Amino acid sequence: MAKKLIKNAYAIVTCDAGDNVFYHSDILIDGPAIVKIGKDLQADDAEIIDATDKIIYPGMINTHHHFFQTFVRNLMTIDYPNLMVMDWIDKIYRIFKEIDDDVIYYASITAMADLLKHGCTCAFDHQYCYTQKTGKRPVDRQMEAAELLGIRYHAGRGANTLPREEGSSIPAEMVETTEEFLQDCERLVETYHDPNPYSMKQIVIAPCQPINCYEETFIKSAELARKLGVRLHTHLGEGECAGIEERHGKRTLAWCEDIGFVGKDVWIAHGWELTPDEYEVLGRTGTGVSHCPTPAVLGGFPILDMKAMKEKDVLISLGCDGSATNDSSNLLDALRLSYLMQAYYSKERGTCLTPYEMLKIATVNGAKTLGRDDLGTLEVSKGADLFMVDISGLEMTGLIHDPKNLLPRGGVTGSVWMTMVNGEVVVKEGRLTKVDEKQLFQEGEEVCNRVLRKPHPHIWEQ
User: Fold this and answer.
1) Nearest CA to 326 among 293, 374, 303?
2) Which helix (DSSP H) or strand (DSSP E) does residue 85 occupy?
3) Which helix (H) or strand (E) holds 192?
4) What does the pLDDT look like over 367-411, one tens digit per residue?
């Protein structure tokens, strides 16, 4: 890859340990990495990118999503705000079982495009939609989509193993055995997992949720992940604790701790059901939490007390969550909402995190959560993952004096001016650079119509 020299940025918000901001400065990139940041940099053999009137931020890192749900969104017939999570799961899985691998591919492209256009450069997806129609192809199709668009992708190979007749809410068409799940995890790790610096592809072992899996699924997942040197993920503290207490006699986090599904190589999604005592367990064991603000607000569920969690040394990152409970894949929007919801409780909880602290949760903490010490900040030797916001529009007047706090405080949630991943420009002036967006939109709509809308019109009724 050729060298690139980004010139004359209004500000470069590094999110580094010193919280440095460089004004009217440049970034020199060689291949996938940043090699210099400073004023008046020169490189005769570099492609010049003019960043006049732009603020540059580290690429955000999404730590929880369900890409396949992008074709199962904006459905008022399954009204998430008026359902409890377990009831919603019972209804929505009846649609999920119809998904095939073409839906997986085009829905993933759509979600990844949305992420890239809104400043996300590295995305984790929790892919648990394995149906009789998809076979074992979902992650393979997602890897195709990620390579097409140029996003850095961590695939969570999920599974549901407990049959409906034994207490889960999973249709028979989506149930796998623990053995076949783990065999496919091994295949995916062998095929795709790259642990090297600047890796574009990694695999995470991610059984979907304790309430819909056998205990052995979680025990053996942890054993396999540690044998192969990959990370672990699941849903936890999302309304399932009462069911787990009934089944196992203990709350979900205690159950996970007893079977070894906690640790610095583990992070959970949501956690809004957890108690302050359980924050201490997370902090002590190093288990991370992906905070997904949009589904919590839409569902009317508790908002994480992030201040209390930080005091217990809990590693918190930011996630979109799936489009069936979010309806978009805009991580800037999630960044804004997460800040507003913390601010809403500031009097009750005794202050809240600053907008800049929230930005670091979406960048620095996202990288830590995924085990990526090569990402998350703009520093020499870090991966050249960044996005730029154009500040030349009239609507930006009065905001630009504080670039660190600008995004969530100022409600900057639209498409970014440029996104760069691994030293390559993948979004420019709000458009993807590597694909024909109109063609992919038409192809994706055809798949959505053929596989989902036409066979099940009552679900999409107006």
Assistant:
1) 293
2) helix 85-96
3) helix 178-192
4) 999 999 999 999 999 999 999 999 999 999 999 999 999 999 999
Sequence-distant (≥ 6) Cβ neighbours of residue 258 within 8 angstroms:
250
**Residue 79: how many other CB atoms lie within 10 Å:** 11
Nearest to 318 by CA among 64, 14, 57: 64
The string of DSSP codes covering 299-354 is HTPPPP-HHHHHHTT--EEE----TTSSS---HHHHHHHHHHHHHHTHHHHTS---
Alpha-carbon span 331 to 325, nearest angstrom:
14
Q: How far is residue 26's CA from residue 7's CA, in Å, rounded to a whole number? A: 5
Least confident of 181-185, 224-228, 298-302, 317-321: 298-302
Q: Look over the chain and give the mean of its residue pLDDT values, rounded to a whole number.
A: 95
Distance CA 237, CA 281 (A): 13
Predicted TM-score (pTM) of the model is 0.97
Contact in structure between 365 and 356 (CB atoms under 8 Å) = no
Residues forming a β-bridge with 47 = 4
Q: Among candidates 113, 224, 89, which has minimal Cα distance to 162? A: 89
Q: What residue type is 441 in one-letter code?
A: F
Beta bridge partners of 30: 3, 33
CB distance 353 to 359 below 8 Å: no
The CA distance from 213 to 210, in Å, is 5
Beta strand 431-432 pairing with 424-428: antiparallel
